[in-house]
């Protein structure tokens, strides 16, 4: 209850690799005092849970404000480059593990089947095909599940978007190297302070959600990629060569 | 980077601010969310599982919820049984063709769920016919029914749920983001009740 999973190979939707220490225990106790009190007083527990919910919502609101101040202009520039790639016939490939795999899927369908009459753009989620993913895991290893697919599909007009909360997933690092080698526009979403993704030269645009909570990071990342979609859609009609 | 480089963008700021009011509204539902966590904890305590469903974008959210509960993010939190009804493409497309798309969740619920279970239907506008049919099948079975809906909770599906948590926006993207926060919080705080076994036997919630 008091420590986070120290499992660096796993990531996102569900696991985390931050260090375990005493300060985490203290932080946890201050965050969830009711876990450390021996009570079966239902109204008291409900009230403490209510207060915790209000605090969590406050955290995500604040995190979004930090990101818009810090990354607003870069988000706009990134969207303009994405629109140019689509106009040149490019496609978008999105990838991530666990909960981030579902975000990759959401991102792909946002472009491919958008609500409200926006022009559809070709987009794929690289975690969607369980046959491909399990074959690569079994035959080679989980580190190549995205890189190998980008090697098969990716070209110089395409866009690669990788999502991770830790920024450390080995299969994302491999995928960005492959995408960069192929001349793709590379976009990374990470949390904490960016992890190993922050050290890569292969990521053109890295957006970091500076939080220590995997949940708040994922919520902020959802905003980042959905705002990127919205900005890209605003740019698409203005990019020469667009036929959609 | 040096020099007067603009870091913000008025349009990005505007888009991010669209999220703020609905988030504040969610905080206003804290009491209802806490009650939902409690009711879900009672079902898990009795051996029930969580069954999640939604179409389009929410189908990805259904899978996110399932992995959240089955594979806990924090050491020491117990894995809780949860399945998404969106992942078996053979079954989903088979039902869609033979029985119709509206039946995809109701059909699976009838064969995969039990009365002790929890149904969580996620929809952007509250009107998804397949989510509505799923919640109805769940209610007929005697399951605890929970709906996440947008547009302030309007829509027929929400009348079929014991607990309705809403995202106060008409923008499907904003609704999704509020729903991600909502189900993250449901997961984070349902565990609180396992630490206080006395509160699981009260039978106060359905």
Description:
The complex is a heterodimer of chains A (about 240) and B (about 210). Chain A has helices at about 20-30, 40-85, 100-110, 130-140, 145-155, 170-180, 215-235; strands spanning about 5, 90-95, 125, 160-165, 185-190, 205-210. By secondary structure, chain A is of the alpha/beta class. Chain A has one domain: Rossmann fold, CATH 3.40.50. Chain A is globular and about 60 Å long. The termini of chain A are far apart. Mean pLDDT of chain A is about 90; it is low at about 1-20. Chain B is of the alpha/beta class. Chain B contains eight helices and six strands, in the order αααβαββααβαββα. Chain B has helices at about 10-15, 20-25, 30-45, 55-70, 90-100, 105-110, 130-140, 170-195; strands at about 50-55, 75, 80-85, 120, 145-150, 165. The model of chain B has no long low-confidence stretch (mean pLDDT about 90). At the A-B interface, strand 1, helix 2, helix 3 and helix 7 of A face helix 1, helix 2, helix 3, helix 4 and strand 2 of B.
Short description:
The complex is a heterodimer of chains A (244) and B (206). Chain A is an alpha/beta fold and 244 residues long.
Radius of gyration of chain A, in angstroms, nearest whole number? 20 Å
CATH top level label of chain B? Alpha Beta
| Overall residue-averaged pLDDT value of chain A | 88
CATH class of chain A: Alpha Beta
Looking at the structure, the CATH topology of chain B is Rossmann fold
Total strand count of chain A, please? 6
- Largest sheet features of chain B: 5 strands, parallel
- Which stretches of chain B are low in confidence, meaning pLDDT under 50 for 5 or more residues running? none
Superfamily at the CATH H level of chain A?
Glucose-6-phosphate isomerase like protein, domain 1
Number of DSSP helical runs of chain A:
7
Number of E strands of chain B: 6
Secondary structure class of chain B reads alpha/beta
From N to C, what is the helix and strand string of chain B? HHHEHEEHHEHEEH
* CATH topology grouping of chain A: Rossmann fold
Q: Level of helix content of chain B?
A: 40-55%
Number of helices of chain B: 8
Counting structural domains of chain B, the number is: 1
Q: CATH superfamily of chain B, please?
A: Glucose-6-phosphate isomerase like protein, domain 1
Overall mean pLDDT of chain B stands at 92
Strand content of chain B: 5-15%
């Amino acid at each position: 209850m008091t420590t986070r999973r120290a499992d660096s190979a796993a990531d996102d939707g569900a696991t985390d690799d931050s260090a375990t220490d005493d300060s985490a225990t203290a932080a946890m106790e201050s965050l969830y005092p009711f876990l450390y009190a021996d009570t079966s007083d239902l109204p008291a527990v409900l009230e403490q849970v209510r207060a915790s919910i209000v605090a969590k919502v406050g955290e995500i609101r604040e995190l979004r404000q930090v990101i818009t101040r810090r990354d607003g202009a870069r988000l706009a520039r990134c969207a303009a480059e994405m629109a140019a790639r689509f106009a040149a016939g490019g496609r978008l490939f999105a990838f991530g593990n666990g909960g981030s795999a579902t975000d990759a899927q959401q991102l792909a369908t946002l472009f491919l089947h958008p609500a409200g009459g926006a022009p559809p753009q070709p987009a794929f989620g690289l975690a969607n095909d369980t046959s491909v993913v399990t074959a690569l895991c079994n035959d080679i290893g989980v580190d190549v599940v995205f890189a190998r697919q980008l090697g098969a599909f990716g070209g110089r007009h395409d866009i690669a978007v990788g999502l991770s909360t830790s920024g450390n997933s080995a299969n994302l690092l491999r995928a960005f190297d492959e995408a960069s080698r192929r001349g793709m526009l590379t976009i990374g979403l990470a949390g904490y302070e960016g992890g190993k993704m922050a050290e890569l030269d292969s990521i053109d645009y890295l957006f970091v959600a500076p939080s220590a909570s995997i949940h708040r990071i994922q919520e902020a990342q959802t905003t980042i990629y959905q705002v990127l979609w919205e900005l890209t859609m605003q740019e698409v009609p203005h990019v020469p060569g667009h036929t959609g | 980077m040096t020099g007067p480089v603009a870091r913000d963008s008025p349009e990005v700021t505007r888009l991010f601010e669209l999220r703020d009011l609905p988030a504040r509204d969610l905080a206003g539902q804290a009491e209802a969310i806490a009650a939902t966590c409690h009711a879900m904890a009672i079902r898990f305590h009795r051996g029930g599982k969580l069954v999640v469903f939604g179409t389009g974008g929410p189908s990805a959210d259904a899978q996110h919820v399932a992995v959240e509960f089955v594979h806990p993010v924090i050491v020491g939190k117990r894995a809780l049984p949860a399945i998404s009804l969106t992942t078996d493409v053979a079954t989903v497309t088979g039902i869609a063709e033979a029985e119709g798309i509206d039946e995809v969740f109701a059909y699976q619920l009838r064969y995969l769920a039990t009365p002790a279970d929890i149904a969580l239907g996620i929809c952007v506008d509250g009107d998804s016919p397949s989510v509505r049919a799923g919640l109805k099948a769940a209610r007929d079975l005697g399951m605890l029914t929970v709906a996440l809906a947008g547009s302030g909770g309007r829509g027929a599906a929400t009348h079929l749920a014991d607990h309705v948590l809403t995202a106060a926006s008409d923008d499907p993207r904003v609704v999704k983001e509020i729903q991600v926060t909502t189900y993250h919080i449901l997961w984070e705080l349902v565990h609180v009740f396992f630490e206080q076994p006395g509160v699981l036997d009260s039978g106060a919630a359905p």
